[in-house]
Structure formats: C-alpha cells, structure tokens
Amino acid sequence: MTQVTFTDHEGATRALDATPGDSVMETAVRNGVPGIVAECGGSLSCATCHVYVDATDLAALVPMEEMEDEMLWGTAEDRTDCSRLSCQIRLDEGAHLHVTTPATQV
Rounded to the nearest 5 degrees, what angle is found at the Cα of 84, between the Cα atoms of 70 and 23? Predict the structure, then answer.
C-alpha cells in the first residue's frame, strides 16, 4: 500500500492511501488536505504546494531538478533542507512518505 502522512503546521496528522505514480500534491488535492493550495495544478509555476519532507524520507526521493530548486526560493514560508514542491514528488508503489505543510502557501 502506498501512503502519505500529512502533518499540518499545528501538528494535526492525516494519513492517506495514495495511488502509485501520482504526486503528493495530487493526493492532497484529491483528499482536501488543508495547506496545499496548488494554484498552478502541478505545472511547476507557483510554489503553493511547498512541503517539508521528513528528513528520514528524503534519501528515498528522486533528487529535485533545477527548476524546482529555483521555485523553492519563492515560497511564502522559509525554505529548509527538507523543502520540496509536492507536485514534483511522484509516489512509488509501497511508498510511505511523511510531509509537513507550512503555516501558509501565499
């Protein structure tokens, strides 16, 4: 089973089953997860799907590409070493990913 656990900035946690091949952003939007705005719908042009990936999960992800890296400098909340855009994180079969949403996206 593929699963994403979303924790909001106040600590509330929500675990969701996800479809392999979908992005973390698609999973969040489909399930009404607060804290993921996704204004551009995943086209890598708005940075309103910023998440902080649990440090223990980072190594399992495909490294970010240059465009995502650039977009992360424009997020509403400060970027950290664990920052990613959820539209750029594709879920593999059996993945169990933990992300935290920032206090605001805009």
Answer: 115
Which CATH superfamily groups domain 2-100?
Beta-grasp domain (3.10.20.30)
Residue with token string 């400098």:
73
Q: What is the pLDDT of residue 68?
A: 97
Distance of CA 52 to the CA centre of its chain: 7
Task: Sketch the domain layout of the chain as residue ranges.
Answer: 2-100
- Mind listing the pLDDT tens digit for each residue in 45-103? 999 999 999 999 999 999 999 999 999 999 999 999 999 999 999 999 999 999 999 99
**Does residue 80 contact residue 9 with C-beta atoms inside 8 Å?**
no
Distance from the first to the final alpha carbon of the chain = 33
What does each C-alpha distance from 86 to 25, 68 come to in angstroms? 5, 10
- 98 vs 58: CA distance, rounded Å: 10
